[in-house]
Specification:
By secondary structure, this protein is α/β, with parallel strands linked by helices. It has a single domain, classed as 2-enoyl-CoA Hydratase, Chain A, domain 1, CATH 3.90.226. The chain has 11 helices and 13 strands. The strands form 3 sheets. Strands 3, 4, 5, 6, 8, 9, 10, 12 and 13 form a 9-stranded mixed β-sheet that branches. A two-stranded parallel ribbon has the order 1-11.
Length: about 300
């Protein structure tokens, strides 16, 4: 299941963080998340991967190139852009954000010597807000994009569903799914009350609905937060998958309610279009680019 976290504003301030992420990823990146939520970055957190590990090129002979500012991208190249690790909307020194990765995607989509892109996804998900920049890119792209998945959970699958074709990278460990949302609250109110510290949140007479769902949830009433926050997100997620994946067997038990599936079942239920390798994905990009060119030539003649 995906997770939406609202931090207790008594500890972390007034910000609300929403996540679409598998529990495994949440636990794996717990130190990072805690640092982000508290605003105190742990010294043990290493700096983010260099850009050379985020994107690279395969030329027309399938030779791999790591482009730099001075590198001339050969004609007929296929770009590879990677979404690896938890997804965030905005990047900083410690991780790449969707704002930065989509800028790389747009660069390759506009480059005259790049015929298409492989989007390599290995993530359990991340911030719900990270999906929107990718969706905007896909709605405006001009060249084929093929997905290649290792772990593709939650926000990763939501993003990947917009690709033109998608492969699981192997039939051993590759998994897809975790469609759905949930909330996880951790409150320290009683702890501070026992210390004699009482928090007073006072709303204007004209702002009676402000944070109402979260305030009620902190008291154990989850009805409003489900109706106003969780259910709309879950339905948007489901709708995009149904619209983007024509072979999706939406009535499969667990498919739209949070289960993960290995590659063979993901293919059977329509979460992916095939099982392959990086070479398979590159070949598919070239195939789709050639088809796109033929259609364009036909329409112009």
């Amino acid at each position: 299941m995906d997770t939406i976290i609202n931090t207790d504003k008594n500890i972390f301030g007034s910000s609300t963080f929403k996540w679409a992420i598998t529990p495994e990823s949440l636990f794996t990146y717990q130190t990072l998340f805690t640092s982000l939520l508290t605003g105190k970055l742990d010294a043990s957190i290493s700096e983010r991967q260099p850009q050379a590990n985020i994107n690279f090129i395969f030329d027309s002979s399938n030779n791999q190139i790591h482009p730099t500012d001075s590198t001339e991208i050969p004609e007929g190249s296929v770009a590879v852009v990677r979404i690896v690790g938890s997804m965030f909307r905005y990047g900083n020194y410690y991780y790449w954000g969707a704002d930065e990765i989509t800028r790389i995607l747009r660069y390759f989509d506009a480059h005259p010597n790049v015929i298409g892109i492989v989007l390599k996804i290995d993530t359990g998900g991340g911030q719900v807000a990270a999906v929107a920049p990718y969706k905007e890119f896909f709605l405006n792209k001009t060249k084929p994009v093929v997905g290649l998945y290792e772990t593709c959970g939650s926000a990763g699958l939501w993003t990947g569903s917009f690709t033109d074709f998608a492969f699981a990278e192997n039939n051993i460990s590759a998994m897809m799914g975790s469609v759905g949302v949930m909330a996880n609250f951790r409150s320290f109110i009683k702890y501070y009350e026992d210390l004699g510290i009482i928090d007073h949140n006072i709303k204007s007479n004209y702002s009676e609905d402000k944070n109402d769902g979260f305030d009620l949830a902190m008291k154990g009433d989850y009805t409003k937060i489900k109706a106003e926050h969780l259910d709309p997100l879950a339905l948007k997620f489901q709708d995009d998958l149904k619209n983007n994946l024509p072979s999706l067997k939406a009535d499969t038990p667990g498919l739209l309610t949070g289960k993960m599936f290995y590659a063979e079942d993901s293919l059977k239920y329509g979460l992916i279009d095939g099982i392959g390798t990086m070479a398979t994905a590159i070949d598919k990009v070239r195939e789709l680019a050639e088809l796109q060119m033929q259609v364009s030539n036909f329409m112009n003649n």
